[in-house]
Amino acid sequence: MKKTKSLLIVVALLALTATSQAQLEVGLIVPDKKTEFGFIIKPSPVFALTLRSAFGSRLHAFESHWRWGLSIGYAPLLTSMDAFPIFRTNYTDGFISEQKKVYHIGEQRFKNNVVNLFYGAAMIECKILKTALSPIVGVEFRMNVESFSFSTYYPEYDGQFSEDSHSGASGSIFPKVGVVYDMDWWTFQLTAGYNKDFIYGNSDGFPYSAVSASVIYYFD
């Protein structure tokens, strides 16, 4: 986490000496289906606001290879089911081999069927060509915070019912590729990337792919 915080400070200092830009981004998160996260969450929207910079004046910034910025983002992650079943497994000795029986004993529900994901990120991108239309590569270093409430119901145990909440944090890296088109005061950008956690707090992490479309405005 300390390395990520230091990177955020460095990016902020660089932004003071360069052309300023504001970026609005809308995208789609697609969870990795090989993980528990992918089982619980279905494809969901994500929204982000970025303050960006590039070397030089507004006109010459279009020709700059390097661009960087600080982002805040929010994703209302939608659960794949209204209720998730809870099972109990019993093992008993059989005549030939051990027998296994699985019982459905309850269910768990997420409040509003949503897991809230917030993140802050330090971003750096490289524009490959000094032309209006160009491919880009980049990476984001993110600090993620998740928050959700849930209820648990056990009809097999005298109808036991409980409500609880959870919050957690993690650090992740988000490499990405895309394409940009620079105009006079505006830039349009399409990107695709993959989020991979590398620092775990009290979070299980969020492995997912994401695609997004952005509009960027140069305001000086």
The assigned structural class equals mainly beta
Number of helices: 3
SS elements, strand count: 10
Q: Do you know the CATH topology of the domain at 2-76 and 116-143 and 169-218?
A: Porin
Shape: elongated
The residue ranges in which pLDDT falls below 50 over 5 or more consecutive positions are none
The biggest sheet, with number of strands, parallel, antiparallel or mixed sense and barrel status, is: 8 strands, antiparallel, barrel
- For the termini, the CA-CA separation is 33 Å
**What proportion of the residues is helical, as a percent range?**
10-25%
Radius of gyration (Å): 22 Å
Mean residue pLDDT: 81
In order across it, which strands form the biggest sheet?
Answer: 1-2-3-6-7-8-9-10
- Percent of residues in beta strands: over 45%
Provide the CATH top-level class of the domain at 2-76 and 116-143 and 169-218: Mainly Beta
Order of helices and strands: HEHEHEEEEEEEE
The CATH architecture assignment of the domain at 2-76 and 116-143 and 169-218 turns out to be Beta Barrel
